[in-house]
Amino acid sequence: MRARSALFDVYGDHLGDRGYVAPVAALVRLLEPLGIAAPAVRTAVSRMVGQGWLEPVSLAEGRGYRATGHAVRRLSDTGDRVYGRADRRWDGRWHLAVLSLPRDRSARQRLRADLGFLGYAPLTDELWVSPWPREELADVVRESGAELTVASADRFEPPDAPRRAWDLDALASAYDAWLATAADTTAAQLAAHEDPDEAAFSARFLLVHEWRKFLFDDPGLPDELLPEDWAGRRAADYFTGEAARLKPGSDRFLQRCLDGGADSGP
By residue range, what is the domain housing residue 56? Predict the structure, then answer.
């Protein structure tokens, strides 16, 4: 697990109701049980400041970092999707992004990944579709150096063309594969730490981290476009239950780290 990705999870999943801010020492303590060393945390923080995701602040506990407004919007939207809090009512309209792609190859690759994470899929290289509008679309496209035109449509020919932009068979298989191993992965994390709260934090952290990866491939299609026995629903039910079960211990460990006492037991 990379330090930058782990920090996004810390801010998005743990610090939202704490103002999206934490002392850097607490960030180091939180990521230590995950095998991420202090120098890697500090380097990732510095890079995220340079990329506009974090900003330095002075706290009573020492130097700290707060998520920027841009980061909070991304983290809030991600959290809604991770925990299924987004409004599932669909008006039947597809949202289209017509792109004039950047010339730089790496910029195009980053843009494709960012569009996938926002829930868009390509009908062509320059035409992307999503069932849901995303507030961040314009910012993501602008930052890549591309140009954007947006539109919407309620009819396609053939009618299932937008739905086929996603490989639902492959996605269903990925959900089933994750579900087959998730319980063992959690059990292994719980057994790997003597402190029960640290164990709960580590297990829940990895659970959320792996679940978040599905956002790159699953836009959260409306229920009426999915099979009745959709594997994503079974996986989501398991994820929601396990995340809730592990949360009390995880929150206790988080608070100890923020208070500067992660080495002491509950």
Answer: 3-72
